[in-house]
Specification:
Structural class: alpha+beta
Distance between the termini: 75 Å
CATH architecture of the largest domain: 3-layer Sandwich
Largest sheet: 3 strands, antiparallel
Strand order of the largest sheet: 1-9-8
Number of strands: 9
CATH topology of the largest domain: Rieske Iron-sulfur Protein
Oligomer: single chain
CATH class of the largest domain: Mainly Beta
Number of helices: 5
Order of helices and strands: HHHEEEHHEEEEEE
Length: 183
């Protein structure tokens, strides 16, 4: 027992000072690293102009049956399409359970006439064709991404190609019969 007591020693004043300086230096280093990393972390936040466009109101009154329009929301194109009765019938009659990303047309639209989707291909972020009447709409009459060959139907559901999912439907609310708030 006496040997154990002899091996334990009480820290001297120099050892206590050294431990304090070590802890203070480490704490200062950690705070300094956090302060220097903050600008980098903060730069990953969305830009102020993007945040300002977190919601946008759109009038669909100018669209006629069969026409489409594109607006910008959060820095992305949003496709607005006034679908024809034939397009609505085609979207509803498809066997959606067999599609790569199965989703019925009824879940993708609030008003059968208007399709509102984010116009960014879900494969690699390209902008699909199909908004203009002169552009190819792919094999299913909806949208076509020529970069890698993704084909979407008239409900913007993926039908063929490498895209893993349907074009995204943004959150939107009808303010009136023809006015919509996206976001």
């Amino acid at each position: 027992m006496g040997d154990l007591a002899e091996t334990q020693s009480v820290p001297t004043e120099d050892e206590s000072r050294r431990d304090f300086l070590l802890h203070a230096t480490v704490a200062t280093g950690v705070v300094g690293a956090a302060v220097s990393l903050w600008p980098l972390i903060n730069s990953l936040n969305p830009a102020a102009d993007t945040l300002a466009l977190s919601s946008v109101e759109v009038s669909l009154a100018g669209l006629e049956e069969g026409q489409a329009a594109t607006i910008s929301w959060r820095g992305k194109p949003v496709f607005l399409r006034y679908r024809t009765p034939a397009e609505i019938e085609e979207a509803r009659s498809e066997r959606w359970q067999d599609l790569p990303d199965p989703q019925p047309d009824e879940e993708r639209v609030q008003d059968d006439r208007y399709l509102i989707v984010v116009g960014v291909c879900t494969h690699l972020g390209c902008i699909p064709l199909g908004q203009k009447t002169t552009e190819t709409r792919g094999d299913f009459g909806g949208y076509f991404c020529p970069c890698h060959g993704s084909h979407y139907d008239v409900s913007a559901r993926i039908r063929r190609g490498p895209a893993p999912s349907n074009l995204e439907v943004p959150e939107y609310t009808y303010l009136s019969e023809t006015n919509v708030r996206i976001g």
